[in-house]
Amino acid sequence: MAAYTWKIPAEDEYVLSGARIPLALADGLTLPVAGDGLLACDMLVEKGRLAAIAPPGAIGGARLNVDCDGGLVLPRLVDLHTHLDKGHIWSRQPNPDGTHWGARTSVMADREANWNAQDLRARMDFALRCAYAHGTGAIRTHIDSLGKQAAITWPLVAEMRELWKGRVDLQAVALFPIDLALTDPEQFRALVAIVAANGGIMGGMTFLGGKPDERSGAALRHIFEAAAANGLDLDFHVDESDSADARSLGEIAGMIEATRFKGRVVAGHCCSLALADEAEAAATVAKVVDSGMAIVSLPMCNMYLMGRTQGRTPRWRGVTLVHEFAAAGAPVSVASDNTRDPFYAYGDLDMIEVYREAVRILQIDHSGPQWPRIVSSTPASVMGLKESGTLRAGDPADLILLRARSFNELVSRPQNDRAVLVNGKSIDTTPPDYRELDAALGAG
Ligand SMILES: [Zn+2]
């Protein structure tokens, strides 16, 4: 059977009738309950904006109508943590054994050999077209920023941000081992200047498995001070490790306090926390909440990488304490992370897939209606985006229309029959063909 064909009018004004929207994204709206954490509504699209969200039948006048037939309507989603510079190199540089170490060494080799502007442009553009086709409206990407790479990639990111303006909001974070701030202060200063000049965010990868020591504290302090001096936000790769000894998350929370840092701080991964004992985990969660830090979990990538030993069945899921963080009041998101590269062999920057897998991996079903925020309003707010990830009258009509009428139908199938609206206009939801990458990757 062919996929459902949506008939979205080309006109400036029409009604989406018979829609269902998540309760979690309907702040301040009074609408009839449709069960399963959903509300029933009609939506008026006018000149690219969502002009009204009203109870079914309440939007009067003779207007063009799209019958959603009980289907879910979501805002375009927000992908808070990706690696567009690494994306899609799998056929050229696979991970030899699927481990985190295999990923790091493979990516390093590929980066040294191949990451010129032309190669990066082809792969990043491909990745952005995938995300756009699936209904993503904003992406934050980490950018490998060590040595010569910073000067190659950062201007390209600025070029891509301009090119995609109005379709996908693009933010970028410098990724480097945090001890760069100690081992090569000159390179570190130059990197801070590049990030500041390109409207970026400072980041860094914390020590993998090592306990906090004077060195990690000193490196973090340098990064916090450089960010504060330049008015930059921070977004770290934290404790992405199988080691129960990693303690960087609490250390970062402590550094926010010690430096009275005023910017936004995001901690990604935080895998090791799930291996800490209950009392320590609870104390760290409380410390994170007090610090105001935001947490982003990368369930697909971390389930792929963590706990992997040849010939041994993995014993844990690799994800951080998402339920505990959310219950304690931390802003929690989930995101794609890597796509078809040695850190994660699969993926397509499809946030509906990320949500589906998050439901399954994190067991966020059966625990309240708030979870749709982790791919929409929460990451949008963390990224400082005012009109993204929400369903609010007055905001752009940037929407995903689904045939699924419930979360069960949403999570059960890949949702290939969705429609995506950008400023009220229907876009092509066909992702680009992998063959387009053959020339850039030098092979089929
Ligand atoms: Zn990452």
Task: Write out key terms for the chains shown.
alpha/beta, 16 strands, 444 residues, binds zinc ion, five-stranded mixed sheet, 14 helices, Urease, subunit C, domain 1, four-stranded antiparallel sheet, 34% helix, TIM Barrel
Quick overview:
With 444 residues, the chain is of the alpha/beta class. Helices cover 34% and strands 18% of the residues.
Tell me the number of structural domains.
2
Low-confidence spans = none
Cα radius of gyration in angstroms: 22 Å
Task: Give the DSSP E fraction (strand runs of 2 or more residues).
Answer: 15-25%
* CATH topology group of the largest domain: TIM Barrel
Note the gap between the termini: 30 Å
Assembly of the depicted chains: single chain
- Mean pLDDT level: 96
CATH class term of the largest domain:
Alpha Beta
The sequence of SSEs as H and E is EEEEEEEHHEHEHHHEHEHEHHEHHEHEEH
Describe this structure in words.
This protein has 444 residues and is α/β, with parallel strands linked by helices. The protein folds into two domains: 100 residues, Urease, subunit C, domain 1; 306 residues, TIM Barrel (Alpha-Beta Barrel), CATH 3.20.20.140. 34% of the residues lie in helices and 18% in strands. The protein contains 14 helices and 16 strands. The strands form four sheets. Strands 1, 2, 3, 4 and 5 form a five-stranded mixed β-sheet that branches. The chain has a four-stranded antiparallel β-sheet with strand order 6-14-15-16, with no helix packed on it. A four-stranded parallel β-sheet has the order 10-11-12-13. The longest helix is centred in the N-terminal third of the chain and has 18 residues. It is globular, with a radius of gyration of 22 Å. It starts with 12 loop residues before the first strand and ends with a helix. Bound molecules: zinc ion. The site of zinc ion has 6 residues, from loops.
